[in-house]
Every structure is written in structure tokens, then in C-alpha cells.
Specification:
234 residues; alpha+beta; Thiol Ester Dehydrase, Chain A; 7-stranded antiparallel sheet; globular; cell projection; transit peptide; hydrolase activity
């Protein structure tokens, strides 16, 4: 097999939610603690990839419990967007190989280092997050936009119900800045559902839980429902 092709495939299929040398002691310790919780099946680690199609396939398998067939989930992830997105034909196919999942677009240790764990019974998702040097805002501090991104992603995973979720509304109350390179714990929970609307609460705390960095609430919508609203308003 062509070495370049093999290398490319390895990058696409690489799970970035497992420890790498850039992870701090705190991040590794928390990872081990949550992996221990996964042993009885109450929690599960959520794999994370650079390639959008691979990520959507994994999300589908994780949250659509009635269907475990890889072929079916692959078909779903490749077709649902083109069917639901009214402007999908405007996306050029030749541009797609260059596309990456935003939060996995940096090399190890430079940007978003994180792992998520999900409890389906409690409708909770916990994200263990370490911000790298490319996410700096003010000198020595994590950029607020980077923190908002992780809050958005984590709350979205808490609301996942077997299809792609989009954010309709996100409100964040920043309490204090997060030091660059530090580890924070993002706790997110689905607390209410009204029709197709899903409501999620979230807080960001230090490793010991004593420091509150941010609180947030978010309204999520299934992607298919979101496009129906867009079409109705056009």
C-alpha cells in the first residue's frame, strides 16, 4: 500500500481523545478516574477525530443505540447533511479533503486537548479540557472564544439524541479567566426538552472543583428540524 495513503488514513482514523505526551499530570489523572467509571458501563468515553465523516459516524454509533451496524452509520453520516442542508451543493468536493473538525485542527499540545465522557442515563457529559498556547487571548490566559467553543461542543454532546445537533442559543456568564495550559472540568447536563428543543446547563470548574470559571445555558435543535425552520423562514 502507498505509504502516503497509509499515513493519511492513520491520521483520519486516529482517536485524539486518548492521552498524548502533551497531557499534564492533572489531565491524565482525571482521565484515569473517568475511565474507571466506564468499567461498569454507566459512563463511556467519546472518541474524537479530525475527519468530519469519521466523527459523525462515531457519534451516530454512540448515541443511536438501536443501530450498531457500521455500514448503516457510515451511510447516515454521509447522507444526512446533503439531504438536510439546502446549500450543500455549494460545497465543492475538492475542498473537502482539506476540511478538519475545528477543535482537532491543531497538532498535539498546541490547541484543544480534551476528552469527553458521557452518562446516557443521567444525560450528562463531562469534558476534561487543557488549553494550549495557540488558544491564548490576553497574555497567559485562555481566549474566551476557545472556552466558549468547548462549552458549546460539550453541551451539544449532552443533548445528542442520535442525530446531529446545532446550537440555537448559547448564553455564557464568565466568572474569571482560565490560565493557559491549566486543566478545567466542563460539566454539562440536559435538563429539559420541549418538543424538538433541548435545553442544557453547563459549568466550568477547576480540577478540585473549588474555582468556578463560567456558567452557561444552551438551547439545541436537531439539524433536520433546524433546516425546516430555516426553510419556513425563507
Amino acid at each position: 500500500m502507498n505509504e502516503r495513503l497509509l499515513s493519511s488514513e492513520e491520521v483520519i482514523l486516529k482517536d485524539y481523545s486518548v492521552p498524548n505526551p502533551s497531557w499534564s499530570k492533572d489531565l491524565r489523572l482525571l482521565y484515569d478516574q473517568y475511565m474507571k467509571k466506564c468499567e461498569d458501563g454507566s459512563w463511556k468515553r467519546l472518541p474524537s477525530y479530525r475527519d468530519v465523516a469519521v466523527q459523525e459516524t462515531e457519534d451516530f454509533k454512540n448515541f443511536f443505540h438501536g443501530y450498531r451496524c457500521l455500514d448503516l452509520s457510515w451511510h447516515f453520516s454521509h447522507t444526512c447533511f446533503s439531504c438536510a442542508h439546502p446549500d450543500s451543493k455549494l460545497i465543492k468536493e475538492e475542498q473537502m479533503p482539506q476540511a478538519r473538525v475545528f477543535i482537532r485542527s491543531y497538532e498535539d499540545g498546541l490547541g484543544f486537548e480534551f476528552v469527553m465522557f458521557h452518562n446516557d442515563v443521567e444525560k450528562k457529559t463531562v469534558c476534561l479540557f487543557q488549553g494550549g498556547p495557540y488558544l491564548q487571548g490576553l497574555s497567559g490566559w485562555l481566549h474566551g472564544g476557545a472556552m466558549a467553543t468547548m462549552i458549546d461542543i460539550t453541551s451539544g454532546m449532552a443533548a445528542s439524541i442520535g442525530e446531529r445537533i446545532v446550537t440555537a442559543n448559547l448564553n455564557i456568564d464568565f466568572k474569571r479567566p482560565v490560565p493557559l495550559y491549566s486543566v478545567v472540568v466542563i460539566n454539562s447536563q440536559l435538563y429539559k426538552a420541549e418538543g424538538r428543543k433541548l435545553f442544557v446547563s453547563c459549568d466550568v470548574r477547576s480540577v478540585d472543583g473549588k474555582t468556578l470559571y463560567a456558567e452557561a445555558t444552551s438551547e439545541k435543535l436537531p439539524l433536520s428540524f433546524f433546516w425546516l425552520i430555516c426553510k419556513a423562514g425563507s
